[in-house]
Design brief:
Elements lengths: L8 H20 L2 H23 L2 H19 L12 H19 L2 H5 L5 H21 L4 H22 L2 H87 L6 H29 L7 E4 H18 L3 E4 L5 E4 L1 H17 L5 E9 L2 E8 L33 H12 L3 E6 L3 E9 L16 H11 L6 E5 L3 H13 L3 E5 L2 H14 L5 E5 L8 H9 L11 E5 L4 H10 L3 E3 L4 H12 L13
Parallel strand pairs: 2-4, 8-9, 8-10, 10-11, 11-12
Antiparallel strand pairs: 1-3, 4-5, 5-7, 6-7
Helix pairs in contact: 1-4, 1-8, 2-3, 3-4, 4-7, 6-7, 6-8, 7-8, 8-9, 8-14, 9-12, 9-17, 10-11, 11-12
Length: about 600
């Protein structure tokens, strides 16, 4: 049996036992039927020979051979329940039994050939040749059994023929010897092929098992990483949320004082950190299916205009040329998600371009439109092309330069590509630059002029929203188990003339709601954290509290605030249709959401709200 080149003796031994077990199983598979067939054949053949030669010795031979067959049939035999370590024993046992049968059969040529009865000699040769052929087919999995059965029987015939000494018998002996060699050679070859195929099969099974273990380990590591990132993100968002609220309150109090500059700088730093955390949150939200696409005809020039405004200052700061070319083309896509895709691609291009520039253009190709973002940056080597869409992977940034972001932008592009059904193609030459191409379905132009999909100045949008928003709620109840956040939130709300009351658990919140209703001054809004103390689900608690307590009592609008990033929990929040803001919450977005919810009837609450 060929050795297995694994370098591990114990593994080689185990694999060898498995191969031997398969050989033994193959031989024993026809054990009973072969023995019964042999017994019937011995009786018929013996009767024919005895009727022709009338030699009493043939009866003794016939009885001996039948006794051997009966022993072989009734002796304990191998079954599939036998352990693999016993395979060598059963291989030796069946080899000894077939050798015994063959040695008894080897006597019969010496009882027939000396009679010079050519018909009987021919019949004997046909029987021996047939038996050798059958052995080559059924016993070649075990070479010891093949040799043990074939050699005694064939050599008995060959020697009996050669002993006669005349030309005919010598010729028959030579033909028998040649046939024996050819039969053994064919049997050895078949044994080798079977052994090699079994070794290959078991090696593949072992490799598949090890691969399965590695995949399982990788999946466990990925799940642990996801849990760690989710926990770390939540734990980071909690204090950052409190800092943002304290900072917003401080900024509001110092707005017209010289010290207000430091408050503004603090909030810029907090907002930058919040933006980084929100980028990681986007990945979880896309994986959870919280973000859904709303495809519609989109004018690309209306999309390119805010992109040009957003990145032109940055390109000018790096002394790069930014060309965003008008095309007059329309595509069918979700304008906000497509804006995010192209924004990430342009952001990535500017990060990795030191000289030259970035070009954004659209071209019509049949029923499709190609939107291309081309840069003259460092390029992407072929071996790195498959990894650029992985989370946190960055080319040529071993020091994790924060100015190059977190390495999540392209992974978000890939997720948005799958969500929107817009394939992303990449062509790059190291040292020469990179081309990213987004393939979109073309759409017919809509009536009307150029309407930008997004304003270039986000601050103007927020300001206009604040002006157009309804009045802020008069009374707000906050349910949060963390003292710092309760203090920060009440401080911020009170700085905006909102009567804010904060509690730590559901029981206190229920008591506060009932007391406010009895006083005739019910709360206009209930804000609730998603994860409360002792594992209490804030979503369930908030839904219970928001329902009217008593006949005729109106429901209290509910706003959920969370630092969760788990895809499963985000999906649950979406299915609940409760408005949600993600920590750290920007003060302007918080106030806008509160004002809108306080002005709406509970039955008409929106399905989702993002910070």
């Amino acid at each position: 049996m060929p050795a297995v080149a694994s370098g591990d003796p114990s593994a080689d031994h185990s694999l060898g036992q498995r191969v031997l077990r398969e050989h033994v199983a193959s031989v024993y598979d026809t054990y009973r039927i072969s023995t019964l067939t042999h017994m019937v054949f011995v009786v018929v053949f013996g009767s024919i020979i005895y009727s022709q030669l009338k030699n009493p010795s043939l009866l003794f031979w016939l009885a001996s051979l039948l006794s051997a067959d009966i022993y072989v049939y009734f002796t304990p035999r191998w079954t599939p329940q036998r352990p693999a370590r016993e395979s060598a024993y059963w291989a030796r046992k069946i080899s000894r039994m077939v050798t015994l049968v063959s040695m008894i059969t080897a006597v019969v040529p010496w009882l027939i050939v000396p009679y010079n009865n050519l018909p009987m000699t021919s019949l004997l040769m046909a029987v021996v040749v047939g038996s050798c052929s059958r052995a080559a087919q059924s016993l070649w999995p075990l070479k010891s059994a093949l040799f043990g059965y074939t050699l005694p029987m064939a050599l008995g015939l060959i020697t009996a023929l050669a002993w006669q000494g005349d030309g005919l018998h010598l010729f028959l002996a030579a033909a028998g010897a040649a046939y024996l060699l050819l039969t053994l050679r064919a049997g050895i070859g078949q044994h080798k092929l079977l052994t090699e195929s079994l070794l290959l099969r078991f090696e593949n099974e072992a490799l598949a098992a090890r691969l399965g273990e590695q995949i399982a380990a990788t999946e466990r590591a990925s799940e642990e990483k996801t849990r760690f990132l989710g926990t770390a993100s939540h734990d980071l968002r909690q204090p950052l949320h409190a800092i943002a609220l304290f900072g917003a309150a401080l900024e509001n109090e110092l707005r017209d004082r010289p010290e207000g500059r430091n408050a503004e700088r603090l909030m810029r730093a907090v907002n930058a950190l919040g933006a980084s955390l929100d980028t990681m949150l986007d990945v979880s939200r896309l994986d959870a299916g919280v973000i859904t696409a709303v495809p519609q005809p989109v004018q690309l020039d209306a999309l390119f205009l805010p992109l040009n405004h957003t990145f032109s200052a940055r390109a000018e700061h790096k002394q790069l040329q930014l060309r965003v070319r008008a095309s007059g083309l329309w595509v069918h896509s979700d304008p906000q998600l497509l804006h995010r895709m192209l924004s990430n691609l342009m952001d990535n291009a500017l990060k990795y371009t030191a000289q030259g520039g970035v070009t954004v253009m659209a071209r019509e190709r049949g029923d499709s439109v190609w939107v291309e973002v081309r840069d003259t940056g460092i390029g992407i080597a072929p071996e790195q092309a498959g990894r650029i869409f992985e989370e946190f992977y960055q080319i040529d940034n071993p020091g994790r330069d924060r100015s190059r972001g977190l390495g999540i932008g392209l992974s978000i592009v890939q997720r948005l590509s799958r969500l929107l059904g817009h394939p992303v193609q990449m062509h790059s030459r190291p040292g020469r630059g990179t081309l990213f191409r987004v393939v979109l379905p073309a759409a017919h132009a809509m009536a009307g002029g150029l309407v930008p999909a997004f304003s270039a100045d986000t601050g103007e949008v927020l300001a206009s929203q604040r002006k157009a928003a309804p009045a802020l709620p008069g009374r707000v109840l906050l349910l949060d188990d963390e003292l710092e956040i309760r203090e920060a939130m009440t401080g911020l709300l009170r700085s905006h003339a909102i009567d804010a009351h904060a509690v730590a658990d559901e029981a206190d919140a229920a008591a506060a709601l009932q007391w406010a209703r009895r006083e005739g001054r019910p709360f206009d809004l209930l804000m609730c954290d998603y994860r409360l103390a002792d594992g209490v689900d804030g979503l369930d608690a908030g839904l219970r509290l928001s329902l009217g307590a008593g006949e005729g009592a109106p429901d209290t609008p509910l706003l959920l605030v969370t630092g969760e990033t788990s895809p499963a929990r985000l999906q649950r929040v979406r299915e609940s249709q409760v408005p949600v803001l993600f920590k750290p919450v920007v003060a302007s977005a918080l106030l806008q959401a509160m004002a809108e919810l306080a002005a709406r009837k509970p039955a008409a609450q929106p399905s989702a709200m993002d910070a």
